[in-house]
Write a structure and sequence with these properties.
Elements: H1 3-55, H2 61-67, E1 72-78, E2 83-85, H3 98-107, E3 111-115, E4 124-132, E5 138-146, H4 148-196, H5 214-275, H6 277-308, E6 315-319, H7 320-335, E7 340-343, E8 351-355, H8 356-372, E9 379-387, E10 390-397, H9 429-439, E11 443-449, E12 453-461, H10 469-474
Parallel strand pairs: 7-9
Antiparallel strand pairs: 1-2, 1-5, 3-4, 4-5, 6-8, 9-10, 10-12, 11-12
Helix pairs in contact: 1-4, 5-6, 6-9, 7-8, 8-9
Length: 479
Amino acid sequence: MPIRWRLTLFIALAIGAILLVLGVALFILLSEAQLSTVEDTAEKRAAEAADIIRSGQTLQAHDVKDLTLEGVFVIIRNGEGKVLYDPLNLAESGAKDRIVWEKALDRGHPASEQIEFSGGGVPDYIYAVRARTPQGRARVVEAGKSYKSALEEIREIGGILAAGIGAALVLSIGGAYLLAGTALRPVEAVTATAREMGEGDLAKRLPVANPKDEIGRLTTTINGLLARLDVAFRRREEALSRQRRFAADASHELRTPLTAISGHARMLDEWALDGDKETARRSVGTIRREAGKMRVLIESLLTLTRGDEGAPMEVGRYDLGAVAKEATETARTSVEGKVSVDFVPNEHEVTATFDRERVLQVASILLDNAVKYTPDGGKVTVRVEEENGGVALAVSDTGVGITEDQLPLVFERFYRGDPSRSEGGTGLGLAIARQIAQFHGGQLRAESTPGKGSTFTLLLPKRSRLPTTSERLKEPAPS
């Protein structure tokens, strides 16, 4: 059964039960009020007749008329039960009222009973009270009234209440149905919007009619979930795209040395080994050189892969200036004086928590790129300083620089800014450097002016979120 009908049925049953209880209670109260009116009227007339007897007056015509209004009958008896006054001749119909007047006469207290006395198949209420004349003679006054009119009014009241309860129940069912429809309208809107969402189309959001009610809060929560799923799917698509591009670029980079190796190996196999030793030596040299390129490329790919998988790092507290100085001295030796490579010393240590070998690798990559793209006679400068609560290692050069449109691409895998100067490079160095920076909770920043040079800055937090090696060794071994 749909929720709308379930809500309608529940509300209708609840309202019906309330109406039924209220109707029964009201019917009982009104019934008792009608019956009490009959009894009060009879008792009042009996008291009035007794007062007339006690005063010694004789019942006059107007007294009889007043006492018998509204269908009331009055009978007066003497001390022996003989009827002295019975204008309606009801006492001749039998002695059904004997028990009433005898009780009142013998006990001296008023007595009452419900007896079918006046005929018509409906009981009468009879009330008897004893009175004495001024001469001391005992008298019994009976006053009675039929319940017929009261019962007729009760039946009318019951019919009116039943009709009212029925009408109210029908109206409550209709109102409950409309109310449930109004309450569930946001759900219908959410359902319709959800149906329109195609596979992978998570950019749409569900409508929120009232963000403060339960359905609104649920819809807001679902929208938040959709937003997170959308981000996750986009990241997945980006990761898959990067993987496809990475595989294609890696295949392309490996194809060139493999082609050279295959060609020279075939040449050696076919004729060079026996016919031309000089050519054979050159071919062997080419094979070694291309194999070296492949080894460097494969090692770089493995480095990136281990980084993507979150390879553990040996983290400790080190002086970043010492690491930068070591990388600078290595780079200075390799350039053989063609480019000036200088380290600007610090007055005090600039310490931080990082993996020394990884950060040394970043510094070497930045210096290698700076030297590679700086012409002979140029200058490369390395500085270490504190910056924005962290530490920074900056490598500046006076090389060719990078154009503004190429600057965002330099950290992409296999990207080469100047192919004429990238011989021997894999295009993965800066990607590896950025990856290492991100693992430390830092970043790699690039600034450049074409024709004047570039500055690459490694920014690291002073306190890395990664546990140090000593801290990791203190952790209990998994059971």
